[in-house]
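Thread: Modeling a multi-component assembly for a lab meeting

Hi all, long-time lurker, first post. My supervisor asked me to bring a structural picture of a complex we are working on to next week's group meeting, and I have zero experience with this. I have the sequence lines for every component (450 residues in total). Could someone generate the structure of the whole assembly? Inputs are pasted exactly as I received them:
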Amino acid sequence: MKAPKFSYVRAESVDHALALLDQHGDEARILAGGQSLMPTLNMRLSRPQLLIDINRLDALKGIALQGDRVRIGALARHVEVLNSPVVAKNLPLIAEAMPHVAHVAVRNRGTFGGSVALADPAAEMPACALALGATFVVQSSKGRREIAADSYFKGLYETARAVNEILVEALIPVEKPGTVSVFLELARRHGDFAMAGLACHARIDKGVIAEARLVYFASEVRPTLATRAIAAIKGKPWNDATRDAALAALADDLDPMTNLHGSAAMKLHLQRVLTRRAIDQAVARARAA
Amino acid sequence: MTGEETTEITLTVNGERIARRVRVREHLVDFLRGELQLTGSHLGCEHGICGACSVRVDGVVVRGCLMLAVQADGAEVTTIEGLTDTGEIADLQAAFVERNALQCGFCSPGMLVTAADLLKAAKPATREEIRNFLSGNFCRCTGYHAIVDAVETTLNKRLGR
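Re: Modeling a multi-component assembly
Sure thing. I ran the full set together rather than chain by chain. Output:
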């Protein structure tokens, strides 16, 4: 189908975009990579009055190491994150996840910020950002504020970003020496939306899991930190008893959505399979390091 | 175009400078097909799944149905017609014919434009990597095996292997 009628403005600056947002509120949509917004327009699932195109705003671009955090500008394209030596060196979890993000042509346009702003429950980047304890910087005409990833993802496509705010960048703590990360995802076809997925970041000392963050996606309405499963493995060696306790606890952390990709029961099963594989791999990586 | 917001754009399509007034809601491939009669870029799903609309914008392959024509203002756009005229993928097209890598042909322009990006990188790729690279392009005749063969043959020839 064809997109409905709308007005279009190419933002000349972040302030320009913010002024338009103030003026039009919820009737306006920010157009970044357009890889999710454009399909909803073409299918007429969305009828905004105004598109504010931010693609030429240099202030929102770039990927750089800033002290002990990596700044990923909201407009950094997936392909730039994929090919970034800064990301490869400092954020191995994201480097491992990137090849799972959509397909070549979509990665050439789609943006990191767009993925985080939309908060699709099956998206990889929100889960990775949450696993690594990222901070998101949003800006309105009143100024900037920082939102911890832990309190950013609220529900299905629902975030702590207000209608008058633009996501401008993510600040992601570098993965410290002595920590390991593992990213796993199951999809019917490479690059398609995940049926189940897990982003894991942990510190494992001599086979004992000292700290871990397990973030599940594609089964829940939002990327979900599995606090009970984490409690079940923290301070424990990774053995059969710990594994059984973690997999049992996971049923209390997750409440999978039944959708086209599978039933709730199947998704919980798949997330358990991924949990086992991910921690096996994390332990192996810690040993090899 | 009553009631439609329009705007002037200037862009380069297949090496030719073009200025037109476009409807702001028109996506790039509708513009290429309807306004410029470049009908090689196809529209399958029109929501970014099938890849039939793949075109090259500023050097990289994108979904032509997920980009507005107005966003291509100032850009350099290359379609399958342009890639054919320059001869950039003449070897790949010959390999497609040789290996019978097209059946109904609907997906072929998108496949070729996408594969052109892989060939442009001029790096060795396994069959698995070729498949992954093309995974965003659907062939509903399901002729994937022959398509991967053709891309693999062309890549290896170019790399002198």
